[in-house]
Amino acid sequence: MTKNKHIPVMLAEALDALKIKSNSWYIDATFGQGGHTKEILNLGGNVIAFDYDQDNIEVGQEKFASETKKGSLILIRENFDQLEKIIKELGLPVAGILFDFGTTSEQLMSPKKGLSFEGEDQELDMRLDDRLGVKAKDLLAVMGQKQLQKIFEVFGGEKEARKIAHEIIEKRRAGEFITTVGQLVQLIKLTKAHNPKNIHPATKVFQALRIAVNDELGSIHRALPQAIKILKPGSRIITIAFHEGEDRIIKNYFKKWQVENKGQQLTKKVIKPTEKEISNNPKARSARMRIFRKNK
Q1: pTM summary value
Q2: Are residues 230 and 271 in the same domain?
Q3: Are residues 192 and 246 in the same domain?
Q4: In terms of DSSP H, where are the helices of the chain?
Q5: 205-219 pLDDT tens trace
């Protein structure tokens, strides 16, 4: 196993929450490298897997060739905000839905996505779906200072967002546009007054730009109402969030649905990864799981 190989987060907890039944259909709304899908299949379930990253789909087609051939796995290259449309077309009853909103290690380290700090000459792309039109470098080229500051603060929690946004605008005024990973990392390192030892200084800005480019929070807003509609009565939605903004959206929807008598939150408090899992996979430390059961 390489250090960059993706490890599925809270795998045992997610499988336990789904209550897999043999031959029933489950949605893995965020296929990634197929870690959760693999275990659902091993437990006798069938999977409809969504992913908008063509690289992930190609990995899945190779890794799960026999499962796709026999029809126990259906791979869909679409954003999960297309759930309702696709499931209606397939005409399959859904016994459970899993959303893992994390980004895979392979995506973060990809030489063509511009998400790795190590690829200094990489273009600031950050699109996880290469069919999208706007790249991160485009946002840095056209957005005003207040817009950039808001993105860095809201999506990244960056405390020095104003200073960083100001420096980007000053560079633009001087005719210098930030288009590569190295340029942005260097600007942030030189701008920030405090660079913590345990986290790369550009982490929060990169996260914020990735979320903005891929409209990640908007996709969650669009997908969750579809998920509760297509789910069989008595079945469950499981979410694993890694960002406060993601978890807040989920929490609010689950509360709203319970008030509307659509079902019940089974997690009054979020489920967090164990200390053992965090020790084995530090990327799991910010994961937060919630479970909602639709009324019968």
Answers
A1: 0.90
A2: yes
A3: no
A4: 11-18, 35-42, 54-63, 65-70, 83-90, 105-109, 136-142, 145-156, 161-173, 181-191, 203-213, 216-230, 244-259, 275-280
A5: 999 999 999 999 999
